Amino acid sequence: MEIIGAIITLIGALFIFLGSLGLARMPDFYNRIQAGTKASTLGTMLSLLGIGLIHLEWGGKIIILIIFVLMTNPISSHVMARAAHRIRVNLTQKTVVDKLEEKERTKLKVKK
To answer: Where do the structural domains in the chain lie, given as residue ranges?
Structure first.
């Protein structure tokens, strides 16, 4: 069971590495958040699962941690992206559609 746990932990570390690579390579803040969040969420969950397989007595605590990471990581990145959009952090030149901007314009037209 320790070998399987070690392999899963290594795969989790690989996802975390790929997420950090995405942070360096993506063109704008919003893409960086997306790359970092998805990879770090999966990487952290796999690493915790691997540790849980190595130390079976920690199983309950590991499950609670995985649920916590699964719930908080995407929510926190969403909040950061909305805050960045609100303070007008620039999108990359390659961005074609900004659905949040369109939604906000629609709300302003309805209020007038």
So the answer is: 2-111
